[in-house]
């Protein structure tokens, strides 16, 4: 096996016999060609591979389509509450993955009846979103963002467009005004807490996000509107304000990051793949195909952490111990040769696992809303800047160093300047 991820022998993970031969998830080569690592792990370990997370903490990466489906369908065996992890003693407080695994009293970490209560409220609140209105709002947001760079003939789409648009769409769906200082501040603080740049203070920004969402909930208690927050407040489950604040932050974060990467990865595909190049401008079918192909081949949430084994069990021929961490290898599962024996991954159906599956999957209306946001973002950009091309060679585009999200560092483009 080539050294795509590096091996280790003096680590807590490698000390455990089950994790002999474990591969570190990460490293430069991993970022650029994760599909190769998945192939190699599958060859060596089968559908479930021992891996080492940051700081060489052991976990299992589930690579098989059938096995990911099994894990997500069996909450009684693979549950969501991370407090049952058997590795907490080895994990430092400033562990980089803490934001994903540290228990929070949000819908993400609840289980059973309590999860059904929380997820039921979210599902109904999202179902109330008018998709035509959302599409109109996204078009308006897209136009505002495009206007800020259209005159210059060049743009870096990742930050100026793909990240900015779903963030604004998400806070508007939750009931923040379309414009104004409060909305601007919330969008800025969310950006910093989800994706801090140099000089940013993500902890302070996250605190401010909490305060601003609390304020929003207080205002919506006084005066309901046609928004997600008001529908959550009015739901008969009677969630407390604290529960609603937690779940609103989860909804906004869960909407922003993957949808932003979905938009950017789709634009990358449209701009670099000759199958789409001929008809990008105005080719509705092509945009739909590109959006779908990205979910199969460059899915935004490539790995999701995760589930924790409730008791000792077998999975894909591996013995999983009670309290072990199981990472859902969504990207690997989508390209599992067991479902694609001809080695051609078809992008036509929606049977991919990009939105996960089972009780904790991305709640039913959310993928539809994400589709409206992503489709409108891509189509509006192509309509407004029809001669847009990449400003660098395709090989110069680089993927961000994340095992979890698949997204580019930057997507620089150029086009004929448009005076508004
Ligand atoms: C409007 C946009 C979106 C919203 C509001 C949203 C909302 C959510 C929420 C609330 C959860 C937590 C579910 C739970 O634990 O019960 C979730 C989970 C998830 N979402 Fe989304 N999401 C959106 C877009 C997306 C996109 C574009 C993707 C990927 C293509 C995605 C993939 C996932 C995945 C993989 C999970 C984890 C499911 C699991 O634990 O098995 N979501 N989403």
TrEMBL record:
GO molecular function: heme binding; iron ion binding; monooxygenase activity; oxidoreductase activity, acting on paired donors, with incorporation or reduction of molecular oxygen
InterPro entries, sorted: Cyt_P450_B (IPR002397), Cyt_P450_sf (IPR036396)
Family from the record: Belongs to the cytochrome P450 family.
UniProt protein name: Cytochrome P450
UniProt lineage: Bacteria, Bacillati, Actinomycetota, Actinomycetes, Kitasatosporales
